[in-house]
Design a protein that fits this description.
The protein is mainly beta. It is built from one helix and 42 strands. A six-stranded antiparallel β-sheet has the order 1-2-3-34-33-32, with no helix packed on it. The N terminus is likely disordered.
């Protein structure tokens, strides 16, 4: 354990996995959950938290939160409590940290090379109309030094010069259009935002399943690209685009949830768009029994890490080779979301750090997770877990190893296929499905004939 200004971080390695966790927040007023995480120019990690949430229409918000700083080299953590949730985070070219306050209707800037409440400037974000609901969320910086951020519920993109002045009158707002033909045509909900290699600003409209292109000179929307998954649905439904990231070539990667079906969501994915191209291509991703739901994502070189909200897992894609894998952080049947990943940041050493979603009830210390790659490979969840009968409660299992190494191809077998079945074998993950009540053993063997086993209990659930 280590402390910084009285704040204690406890580190522990979860047995049988490739994850290490650090408890970084223990204030019930601000640390119910964590969201985005970024790597600062000083090599430290900066993350935002939310206090007890209120949820409506699938969107959760909180009147309190914190901005946190964590040093991976020392384990020292520190948080600054705010009367605001902390959503998107961005370091601008001058080293200042910016973040959005959601329902507090504020944008925050912290002076470069400082981390204190006195170094913060709160900038009130003007409302679209009096008494409107609006939520500043995610941020990006353009080539001219302007900070752009989306207003989710207000359906706008906004701009402020990173050099200031830092006041409400400096914020320029631009309304986004409704969805075009072939979409629900709803009022926009602005989510992910990024500046692509062509210098234009791109935003994701979660209400219409589109990627909108914005001219940074005047804020005008010059094109609305309909995601191929949305094009297949037409006006009958909508996929839910989530986050945007830019790779080294200047192309954009967009995560999305699937279309709403009853009370759930269909399988989501990640799309790749090269500015100027005629179409949008979908990346192949690892399987997940609950349906892949890629959410936050981060790119470092060719390494794309993402969090999968459906499988409670950290996913990986090599954007050059298209190798992919999915590593759950906890069993699918677990009622706890304490260690479910929420935000993620890819690191230069090939690993990833992620924020934990946390448990609303009962409250437990908030944690950061880290992928720990050893010379060997490991299985998670393991060495044992429960599954229900049928595909709806099956469990994805990941082979955890450094993306730079590959112990495959793997083979998987069940000693009692009448009790549990191992199938859908990909490069680094497979799915275990319960067939009948009882116990069985899953044996995984790598290319060097090294075997490891999992003990599975099939319940009636």
């Amino acid at each position: 354990q280590a402390s910084d200004d009285g704040h204690v971080a406890l580190a522990y390695l979860q047995p049988g996995t490739g994850f290490a966790y650090f408890d970084v927040g223990e204030d019930p007023a601000t640390d119910r959950s964590a969201f985005q995480i970024v790597r600062g120019p000083d090599g430290r990690l900066y993350y935002g938290t939310l206090g007890p949430p209120t949820c409506a229409g699938g969107i959760c918000s909180s009147p309190a939160g914190a901005i946190g700083r964590f040093d991976p080299a020392t384990g020292r953590a520190r948080q600054i409590a705010l009367r605001s949730e902390v959503l998107g985070l961005l370091f601008t070219g001058d080293g200042a940290l910016w973040f959005a306050g959601g329902t507090s209707h504020r944008l925050y800037r912290m002076r470069p090379r400082e981390f204190s409440a006195s170094a913060l400037t709160a900038i009130p974000v003007p409302a679209p109309v009096p008494n409107a609901t609006y939520t500043p969320r995610l941020l990006a910086q353009d080539g001219a030094g302007n900070v752009w951020f989306g207003d989710g519920a207000g359906g706008r993109v906004l701009r402020i010069a990173s050099a200031g002045p830092y006041r409400s009158s400096s914020v320029a707002a631009f309304a986004q259009p409704r969805g075009p033909r072939g979409t629900p045509g709803a009022s926009p909900f602005v989510n992910g935002i990024a500046v692509a290699g062509d210098g234009d600003v791109y935003v994701l409209d979660s209400a219409n399943g589109t990627l909108d292109q914005v001219d940074p000179r005047n804020g005008r929307t010059t094109a609305q690209l309909v995601l191929p998954q949305q094009r297949a649905l037409g006006a009958k439904g909508s996929v839910e685009p989530r986050f945007l990231a830019k790779d080294a070539s200047g192309a954009l990667l967009a995560s999305f949830f699937g279309a709403s079906i009853g009370n759930g969501l269909s399988r989501g994915g990640i799309d790749r768009y090269v500015p100027g191209a005629k179409g949008i291509a979908e990346l192949a991703l690892a399987s997940a029994p609950a349906g892949a739901l890629p959410d936050t994502l981060s790119i470092e070189g060719a390494d794309l890490y993402y969090t999968d909200a459906g499988a409670r897992a950290v996913g990986f894609v090599d954007v050059q080779t298209r190798d992919y894998r999915l590593i759950p952080t906890q069993p699918f049947l677990s009622l706890s979301t304490l260690r479910s990943p929420n935000g993620v940041v890819a690191m230069p050493d090939g690993t990833a750090w992620f924020t934990c979603a946390g448990d609303v009830k009962p409250f437990a210390p908030l944690c950061l997770g880290h992928t720990v790659y050893l010379d060997d490979w490991s299985l998670f969840p393991g060495p044992s877990f429960d599954v229900g009968i049928g595909g709806a409660t099956s469990q994805v299992v990941g082979m955890m190893e450094n993306p730079a190494q590959d112990s495959g191809p793997f083979t998987v077998r069940s000693d009692r296929p009448g009790i549990c079945r191992a199938g859908d074998l990909r490069e680094h993950d497979f799915v275990v499905t319960g067939v009948a009540r009882g116990r069985c053993t899953i044996v995984v063997t790598d290319a060097h004939h090294v075997s490891k086993s999992l003990q599975v209990v099939v319940t009636a659930q």
